Amino acid sequence: MTIPFFKTNPDIIKPYTLMDLDDTLFQTQRKIDAWGLSTSETKNLVCATVNKQGAPLSFMSQRQTAFLNWLLVSTDLIVVTARDRYEITRVKLPFNSWQVLTHGAIILTSDGELLSTWQQYMYNELAPLQDKLNQLSQLFANHSKNDNSQLVFTPHIDSFNNGSVNEELTIYLAIKHAQKDHQALIELAKKLPTLIRDFEQDFYVHVNANNLAILPHAVHKRHAVQFLLDHHLDSQRPSFGFGDSLADLPFLQLLDWYGMPNHGQLHDNINSQ
User: Fold this and answer.
1) pLDDT, tens digit, 9 for 90 and up, residues 75-90
2) CATH topology of domain 122-216
3) Closest Cα partner for 104 from 250, 17, 229, 224?
């Protein structure tokens, strides 16, 4: 059998792009300034997200805007984000494909509907952990009420169908520091395994910038992306992805190619080696 040489083909097969959002595709003004991003002068910025009051919060530089436009036109762009179903509504970008949300606990179809098979799987994984998640929630809720506490605690909850009824389940717990003290979150992460029995058997901890997340092992972007690749995406189409965090790397490694912005946790980790 003779293997042919490459020839250009006008019939383009759209690749899949699996894209983390925050700090990969857009970022706050504070981080724009800290990173010194190119083409990020005020006149070049495009608003990407709004805060809870509807005011602009995160922005894309001129290059990021051009990059997103190219991806939307040339590829099937799939969102892979820690944002939950409420938080994703504050992203003002025209996504129209699959969305992997809440660190992978939620998968939405291109119609914005919950993927029922994934919902039932996640229900079975999360339901047995509710007592421990509620115990942790109570600990942090009580701590955050102290006058001296700088921790801002948020439980992420969504509705899951067990095959017959919908039930609200806690998915994961998020903690921020009011003064954006990253080292304080690092120290807290070290103490977490002592708070409840068998913590490390059931949960893992991810810290990036001013975000600490306590997640069940079943909740991971990689698991959700693997499910899409195995059951819903065309295996003949190329795939590539982008992410800024160490937590993104496991899902990125499932793809044919992957990359990162020239800033952020993943970039800094590689540079430090």
Assistant:
1) 999 999 999 999 999 9
2) 3.30.1240
3) 224
Global pTM reads 0.95
pLDDT tens-place string over residues 98-150 = 999 999 999 999 999 999 999 999 999 999 999 999 999 998 888 777 757 78
- The CATH superfamily of 16-105+220-271 is HAD superfamily/HAD-like (3.40.50.1000)
* Contacts (Cβ under 8 Å, ≥6 apart) of 136: 173, 195, 196, 214
Please work out, in degrees rounded to the nearest 5, the angle formed at the alpha carbon of residue 190 by the alpha carbons of 140 and 157.
Answer: 35
- Bridge partners, 122 (sequence order): none
